[in-house]
Each structure stands twice: as C-alpha cells, then as structure tokens.
Design a protein that fits this description.
The complex is a heterotrimer of chains A (146), B (561) and C (173). By secondary structure, chain B is an alpha+beta fold. Helices cover 76% and strands 10% of the residues of chain B. The chains are: A alpha+beta (146), B alpha+beta (561), C alpha+beta (173).
Chain lengths: 146, 561, 173
Amino acid sequence: MTGVAEETYGAGTELRLLVFSIDGSRFAADADQVDSLQLCDPESVPGHAVPFHEVVGFTGRAVTYRCPEICTIRSEAGICRLVIESPEDIIAVPWESLRPLPALIEPFAVQRGIWAGIAESNRIILVIDLCRLASTGNLWKMQGDI
Amino acid sequence: MKIRTKATLLNILLVTAAIAITVIFSLIQIHADATAQAKEVQESHLRTFWELLRAKGDTFSIKDGKLMVGDYPLNGNNELPDKIKELFGGTATIFMGDKRVSTNVVTAEGARAVGTVLEGAPHVALFSEGKPYRGEADILGIPYFTAYDPIRNARGEVIGAVYVGIKKNDYFAGYEKIMHGSILIALLVGGAFGLISIFLVRRLMLPLGAMVDKLREVSNHEKEVTDLTIRLEQQAHDEIGLVAGEFNALLEKMQQIISLVTNITREINSCAGTVSSSVHHQASFTSQLSSSVSEISSTMEEFTSTAAEIARHTQGVVETAETTLHDTREGAVKVETLTDKMAEISRDNQDGIREIVDLGRKSKEITKIMGIINTIANQTKLIAFNAALEAASAGEAGKRFGVVALEIRRLADNVFESTDEIEGKITEILDTVNRLVIASEKSSKGIQDGLEYSTHTTAILNDLVSGAESTTEAARQISLSTQQQQTASSQVVIALRDIEEGVRFSSSSIQQTSEVSRNLTEMAATLRKLVGTFTLVEGSGTAPAANSASAVETLEEVPCL
Amino acid sequence: MASEQDISKSDRILSEIKLLRERQKITDVDEPQLQVVMFSLAGDMYAFPGRNVLEILPREEVSPIPGTPSCIIGLIIVRGDIESVVDLGKILDLPATEGRESFVLLAASGTVRSGVQIDQVEDVVEVPQSAILAAPATLDSGIREFVAGQFEHDGKSVTLLDLEKIFAQVAAA
C-alpha cells in the first residue's frame, strides 16, 4: 500500500484489476497486490494454499476450480497463498467506474475485503482487496513458515 | 434138381430112349407085318365067303322079309358062316339091312347072335355111303379084325352086308412075345447105362459142388449178406476151373463196383441230404416268401385302395386349393385396393395433421405474441405505477398526471383482460389442436397400423397366393402322382399276384424236388441197405449208413407246401 | 299520464345521483389520503407507503455477494448504480415462494436505500387515513414488529409495513 500513496488520485486514474470467477460470481482483485500466479494440479492442491471461496464466505457450498492457480500475495505482514480460478481477464478500470456498495451490504462486505462494485452492462464485478481479506482471515504467514 | 441127377437121368433117358426107339421101330415093323398078314387073311376069308355066297346064287334079293341069294334063303341059315368057321376059324355074319340074320357067333348062352342091329362106323360106311368097311371091334370081349362088304341087289341097292372077323390074337401072339422081350432087354441095358452114368457124372460134378458151396457161402441167405471176399478154388483146368477163375474175376470186379457203388451211394446220400436241406431251406424261404408276398400283396391291395381314397381326397384338395387360390387372389386384389385407399387416407391424414400442427404452431406464436403484449402491458402497468408514485411525490401538480397514469393502467388492465381472453381462446384452440393432433396421430397411427396391416396382409395374401398356387400345383402334382401311384400299385399288385403264382409254382416244384429228394434218399437208403449186404475188404466198407439215416430224417422235416 | 310519470321518475333519480356525488366530493376533499403500493407476498397482501417506494422494477438478474446474511439476496444494477436487494419474505419469516413472478421495489427510508423483492405488484392506490387500522394482536410475532397498520381493499385485508424497521432488521443481522 505504500506505493499507492505516492500515486495521484482523481478522475481518470485507472486501476488494473485481475478478473476471475468463482461459482458464478465475478471478482476483481488489484493486480498490484498479486505477487505471482502459479498453475497447480486440481487433484493435488498444496495444503499451505487456502481456497479463495473458503475465506471469502461461500460457506457451506462445495466449489470446484476448473483450472486452479495459486495466487501469492506479499505484504509487510507476510505472504498469503490463495487458490483461485485461473484469471479470465485483466482490465483497466477508471476510478469513476467504481461504485460504492449499497449501505445495507457494505458493513458485511468490507469484512471480506470487498469494497466496491463495477456495473458492467448487466453484470456486477466485486472488487476485492486481497490484503484485507488476508488480514481479516488471518492468513498471513511468514516466509519461513512455508 | 441137381445137375448131377439131371445128367444121370438124362443119360438114362437117352439110353432108354435109344433102345426104346429101336425096339419100337422093330415092333412097329413086326406089328405092321402082322396086321398086313391078318388083313390079307381076312380078305381071303371074305373072298371065300363071297364065293360061297355066289355059289348059292347070282343075285341077292329080299323076298318075303328074307334075304335071298338066288333062291337060297339066308335068314336063320347059318350054313355059310359055319363053313367059314370050319375053313378058317373066325367069325362070319350076314346082315339083312342092318340086322344080323346069319352068324357063327355064339353068345355065352350058346345061342346064335342074330336079330341084333349093326351100329357105329360100319353102319354109316355101309348104308349111308355104300362102301365096304375095314376095322377092329371087340366081339364078345375078344378083339377082332373086322371087314364088312355091302350086299347089293340087282338094282345096286344096299340091302344087306357080309361080315368076316378074325381074332387078333391069332396074328399078334408072336409079336407080343418079341415086344416083351425087347422091353426087358431095353430096361436092363438102360439100368446098366444109368449106373455108369451116375458114377461118371458124379465124378465130373464134384468140383462144381465145391464151387456151389463156396458160392452159397458168398451169398449167405441165412445171414442175408453177400461175402465178396470169398474166392473159388481153381482145381481143374477144364471149363469148371475157367468158370471159377472167371467168377473170381467177376467177384473182384463186383467188389470194386460195390465199393464204388457204396461210395457213390454215400455221396448220393450226402447229396440227397444237401439237396434235402437246401430244399428245406428253399421251402422255408419260399414259404416265408409266399407269406411275405401275400402279406405284401394284401398290403399293396390295401395300399391301392388307400391310394384310391387319397386320389379321391386329393381331387377334393385340388378343388379346394383352386377355390382358395381364386378367393385369395380376389382377396389380394381387394386388400391391395384397400391398401391404396388406406395410403391415400394416410396421406390426407398426414396433411391434416401437418396443417393442424401448423395451426398449433401459429397459435403458439400468437401466444408468444400475446406474451409480448402482456409483457408490454406489464411494463406499461409498471410505468403507470411508477408514474402514479411520481405523481404522488409531485404533489398537487402531479394530480392530473396521476389521472393519466391511472388511465394508462386501466388501458393496461384492459389489455390484460383482452389478452387473457385471447389466451383463453388460444388455450382452447391449442387444447383442441392438441386433442386433434392426438386424435389425428392416434388415427394416423391407426391408419399407419392399418396401412402396415394391410401392406402386411397384402404381403401375406401375396404369399398366400403364391402358397395357394404352390398348393394347387402341389395338389395337382399329388393328384397326378397319386393316380400314377394307383396305376403303379395296381401293376405291383398284378406283379405280386404273378409272384405269388410263381411262388406257388415254386412251392410245388420244391415239393416235387423234396419228394424227388426223399425218393432219392430212400433209394439211397435202399441202395445202402443193398450194398450193406455185401461184405467187402476193409476200407471200402459200409460207412454211409449213418449219413443216409440222417438224410432221411432231414427229409422228413421238409414242410409240405 | 305515462310520460308525466316517467319524467318525474328520471328527475327523481338524477337529483338523487347529484346529491350522492356532492356528498362524495365533500368526503374526497376532507379525508386525508395515503398513497400505498400494494403487493402480494406468499399469498398475502402487503403494502408500503408510497413515499417509501421510489420505483417499481421488474425482477432482474441479481448478483450474489458472499459474506452477507441470508436475507440479502445480492446486487442489481439500476441505471448504472448498484443497489442491494433484500428478501422480504425471509425478513418477515414467510414461507419461501418459488417460481413466482417477482418484482423489486426500490425503496428508501432515510439515507438507506435498497431493493425489496416481492411477488407481484397489485396496485398503487390512495387509501383514506381513517381506513388504516392498528395491527391486530392476532398477527404472527415474526411480522408484528414490522407492521404499521392494516386496511381493507376490494374485500381483502392488506398489511401496511414499516420499511425503516425492516432495514434496521437487515442491518442488525
């Protein structure tokens, strides 16, 4: 987040987002937060990688990843590895295209790192802050732990 | 009678005969001489008598029932006969007619034998033929030479006869003496010769007797056997010796022949046995054949009648098959027409269904359009609702707008009502269409089934037609065949009858053969028995006895056919 | 005679109608009205006050959002803005209604704004304030806290709901 502070905020500033779908819902994560993406075998997902749907709140549902990838996030707090579906797109979104979440939803969504939405024609992309997700999910691990 | 005896007797007979003949010839000569002498004497006596008569007269006549010579009565006048007696001895008689009127013959009582009548041959010669008679007669038990001459009167008529008789003994006494002496000598000579002959013959016949004994031994009548092993002794080299040799050779030959005959008999016996057994086999076979043939014959007759029945039935079948064929063809044509009609109906039905389905689709399209209209009406209504809300928030100014919104809503509601109604109608149409489609499909299926059935039926009927054709053809063929079969079986029956006849003939032949065989065996047995009576040298013996017996037994088993 | 009678009869009816209409006008003017949006949910009729309902929206695709209570269905896009949608049936503890035509009322209470999913919009009408009665004590306890009143419309009982309380319930979940 340190890099972000130096940037110029305002209209026309674009955000690069990594778009992926989980169980019919589309999520968009800040590409800058992602350290690396690594393909992995759907049959043998490593134990240290946490499936995305489990932390984001798709509780009580069996979610399968057609083409799982291990997304590694780095911060001062440590490293977090999440298993996500292989990203389908990387889009550049201007800030004004981002919509704040409705008042009723926002308090719940923020806990899961979801902080905005993008209304794309008739579909909605949920913009998620992976670092916050890792923090709220207490997923940070030290380099040596892995 | 033995040859010896025969020969002896023959000898004696011959000697005796020779002597006898000699004696008899001598005696005959003597007898003839004596007779001639006696006759001469008699003739002279007769002549003397005639002279004596003629001395009394020249002519003979009967006067007053008395025979007269000249004037000399002869009746009861025994002068002339007595003169003869005086002169010559012997008897003399004069007959008047056939009655003795003057005689020197005196009866035992001492009376003259006058008044009696001449009888027999002399009477016939004298009085019937008018000829003199010469002969012999017993006068008063003494044999005489008799001579009668007829006495003729002047007219030549036989009016009486003269008779002269001389005693035979007066002339044959010497002869008899010679005869007795001759016989005695002949007997003596014969006896002597006979004795000599017996001795000689006996000596001659001695070897013959031995031969006879031997031969008797050969043909032993008591034991009823003929011993061919015995041989005659050849003592003399005369004919008897030769006969013995020849006889021995004959015996030898006979032995050979008999052994040969024995063997042949044995063979005949066995042959007869074989013939008998084969005849037996043949007979049983023939009997079997006969029964089989008659069985076959009856079966064939049955078969023929059955065939006739079949033929009749087959004719019926043929007719039925033809009718069936005709009916089936008609049926096939009808069903084909039906199929065509069904196909037409099916096509029409399919067209109908298509149109109905089309109608349904169009109705659904309408429903879809109605849905669109409804959606539009809904949206309109929604807009109207939102307009009403907007109007309410606009306060007094929005009131009129609110009225418009209300109108729009009513319009939308009307649209809803209309579309509901249309939908109801369309639903009804669709229901009807569905029912129609279902019904049509059902009927289509029914028609299709019908079509299939009728096609199937047509195929079946076509099959049936071809089947019926084949059946008819087959039935015709069967009919034809049955007729042929009938003819054939009739021929077979005829042939069987012939066979039966043949078998019967064969049976009688076999019977004859059997009889012949039996006769043969019997003959063989007889022959064997006959041969058995010959005793032969060992090895050429009488073995066939057992064989022949068995052959006979076998023969007796031959059934009569 | 007959025509006279007829004229007098029509006159009488006309005067009667006029009287009635006069009386109606008076009540229309006097009676304070409340606009309500009536809708059906799980077979019953409910209503929100017209001032709370901003817009009636046809049901659109709702994007689910993880980590929220079950009464929040998800998000919809309304003219470029993202709005939340709540399940009123779940909030009112009504039996689930599957497969029915559904609408979303874009409702607002104070600063909070959200879509409310209902089965069918029935009508938008003006109801006299006097016709709105207090909620009967016989109501289910699950509903009672959200009920503002009750009134009759076309022979049917309609329950008037308090949107503010409903949103508060959602926020508290």
